[in-house]
User: Which sequence fits this backbone?
């Protein structure tokens, strides 16, 4: 023990002296414990589905070299720069916080290419930061949950179906309002615009991308003015964007428009495969649709594209998006194509918390409060608690030996459903469901709460 | 759908064009998938124990106002400042990344005091950042796992026993080399130094705090020169620091030194209660000791103090530390006493990963690779995989219909223990344990792997 000890990085820090109540920072949402318990259930469920499909977890560091973050001129992402308070003057290498999980993942794949097995399936659930102007659904710090499959040189198309299917399965199981996963294919729309005779298919896409924001007749005018289409061509392009089907019947609707093109055919087949691959998951609370409006920005994507709407929260825009890119990363010699999709967890959940549409049934994990007859009885109450914990029942012992009525109210305020009364001279151990008042004899080595009370439950007040 | 859509914060970002292999950033450790699977098992286990004891999860934002982070003149913490790349010139409010979880927790308690139930037990597992010079066990980005109990006005002593017990239970279950939780009590040592007649007990503590770093005779000299003790007093102070017992027998050893003081008695009783409260957990791989050297810095702590050593990694210093503070937070009218302990997860695990002493049995969650006879068979193989997943078996379908020998090697490279062969014209479904070569008929609606193969297992090569 004579080695020099480094500064104690795990030290619990000094208490800050405060004289006034602190206020929230706009854009940096924080949750109360019951909300965090609900969020954790959502994150656990995402992780469970991703892992069932063989996606491996990774985390990347929060900081990347600034030139890496700005490589594509993405200054509009409002990167946060990092600087050490005591940085030496000559310290020049600038770091920024990552604004998504894709740029760091691409860097991780290149850095570790020799140690990874391809195709590499990974999920990644982490905070990201953007210095945007805060508003509902747009935060400066937020959690994303991404899945991607990346390969070396060639990534077969069936992985597009796979990531759609995995995210669809995850989304369909979440305790949120109805979700619609909208799928399209860039080959389909580009091929169609080409088949229509558009001189610049990319210009058509840029206009069509605005179809939700401006009236149809304005779109038609813009297609003529900005994309060089005839009125007839413009009409046929708008007709394509109107197609939306919950199955592969869009293929017949597109064919009925009478446009032929090789790339269009490839896109139709791919999109049909994705929609059919997810078909079994359609229901009241979740649906997958082929939606031929979706263009997903202008660059990068080369095939399948995804967006997702949350019913009643359409103004949030897409809360889960992604697609296929032919070069997720490249080191100059080898390129790494990928397909992925990214769920904005904070973007989806925080508006639900704010509108009291989602929470947990209690603010603590405890299913049981073990009552305390007097302070001398603490070891006995603690032994009961340990016997319950040994069988997976979360519990806590009352903080002080108040009258039992007060201890019951202590449990009530936290939403703890059961209070355990230790044996005394007159009676054996008993447990009371404080919601019904029913109290029954119980054995700490045998009693279990009903399965639905074992862990905090998701509560969805429909206001 | 005519509302303005905010920038799509969930968008999967553009692929960065790269021309060279990126290199790691010193101090920002990243894990390979198998290591991350092992880390997740550790984090899951910590969470499980914390929740069984009723600790509620919270997360706090990564950023705090700089004046909050520097409130105690903690400039040595090497805070990272945040600045938006496009910050307006007049933007003056400075933010920094939190360097621990205690300062943000204190702020969270004050900010939400009206919405929390006290005593409030919370756990918090998050990244923190410090711009320190990187070395083994000292990182610029690392994960901490904290538990604290905080009350309004008064926090009974039994919570000191509680947090010690909960962290001891968590630590004793981790797949790491032997851990020793060292406990002491500031009342005990301060009372003893006072009883010895030290004119400045704090000065004695400052010297004794260095007892692991300098020879005993130097400590004695320093106690005389810097703390104003006589040679006899110095000897008695060093004698106290030499006491270390795995139970409450330290009480008799201290009494044998013949020092009496009221505060000393209070400290002896408290420390004995903490050590006795954890006694049942002592074993080969984990022990709790009363160690009367531990002073835990100079300020803040007012009673119980904790440190923790990892066998074979003593040069890391304490990897899990904390204690009791009479004012975790205060708003001027109300003060919030607390007791807590903080585990340096990255600090503990990354040296183990680096020395190949800890990993997982495979690099993917998948227990089964479902083989693919040909591309046309993909839907059938996918249906088998879905039936296995429905019963909780993580699996993946082979990426391409290579010869079965190649598909088996695909599984081998990832550590997947089983390969499933779909029925064909000649035989029904069968599954092969590729470690033994044993292959048996199997039903996708009934077969389960042995429990130990269901999830990746922790592997601890003893090099």
Assistant:
């Amino acid at each position: 023990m004579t080695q020099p000890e480094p500064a104690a990085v795990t030290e619990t820090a000094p208490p800050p002296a405060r004289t006034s109540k602190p206020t929230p920072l706009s854009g940096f949402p924080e949750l109360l414990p019951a909300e965090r318990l609900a969020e954790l259930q959502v994150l656990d469920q995402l992780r469970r589905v991703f892992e069932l499909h063989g996606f491996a977890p990774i985390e990347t560091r929060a900081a990347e070299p600034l030139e890496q973050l700005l490589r594509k001129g993405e200054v509009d992402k409002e990167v946060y720069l990092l600087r050490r308070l005591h940085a030496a003057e000559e310290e020049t290498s600038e770091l920024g916080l990552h604004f998504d999980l894709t740029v760091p993942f691409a860097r991780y794949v290149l850095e570790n290419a020799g140690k990874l097995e391809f195709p590499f399936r990974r999920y990644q659930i982490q905070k990201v930061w953007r210095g945007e102007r805060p508003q509902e659904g747009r935060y400066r710090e937020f959690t994303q949950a991404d899945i991607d499959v990346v390969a070396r040189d060639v990534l077969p198309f069936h992985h597009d179906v796979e990531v759609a299917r995995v995210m669809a399965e995850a989304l369909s199981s979440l305790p949120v309002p109805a979700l619609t996963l909208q799928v399209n294919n860039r080959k389909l729309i580009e091929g169609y615009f080409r088949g229509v005779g558009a001189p610049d298919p990319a210009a058509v896409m840029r206009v069509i991308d605005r179809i939700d924001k401006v009236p149809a007749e304005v779109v038609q005018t813009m297609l003529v003015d900005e994309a060089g289409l005839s009125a007839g061509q413009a009409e046929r392009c708008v007709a394509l964007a109107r197609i939306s089907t919950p199955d592969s019947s869009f293929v017949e609707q597109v064919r009925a428009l009478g446009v032929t093109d090789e790339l269009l055919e490839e896109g139709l087949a791919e999109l049909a495969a994705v929609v059919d691959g997810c078909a079994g998951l359609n229901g009241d609370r979740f649906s997958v649709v082929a939606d031929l409006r979706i263009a997903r920005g202008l660059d990068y994507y080369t095939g399948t594209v995804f967006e997702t709407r949350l019913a009643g929260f359409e103004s949030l825009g897409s809360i889960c998006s992604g697609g296929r890119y032919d070069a997720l990363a490249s080191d100059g010699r080898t390129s790494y194509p990928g397909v992925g999709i990214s769920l904005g967890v904070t973007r989806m959940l925080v508006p639900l918390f704010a509108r009291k549409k989602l929470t947990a049934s209690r603010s603590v994990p405890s299913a049981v409060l073990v009552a305390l007859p007097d302070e001398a009885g603490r070891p006995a109450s603690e032994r009961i608690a340990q016997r319950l914990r040994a069988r997976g029942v979360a519990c806590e012992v009352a903080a002080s030996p108040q009258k039992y009525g007060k201890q019951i109210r202590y449990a009530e305020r936290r939403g703890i459903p059961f209070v355990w009364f230790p044996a005394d001279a007159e009676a054996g151990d008993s447990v009371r469901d404080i919601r019904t008042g029913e109290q029954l004899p119980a054995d700490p080595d045998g009693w279990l709460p009903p399965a639905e009370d074992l862990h905090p439950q998701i509560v969805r007040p429909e206001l």
Notes: The CA atoms of residues 242 and 297 of chain A lie 18 Å apart.
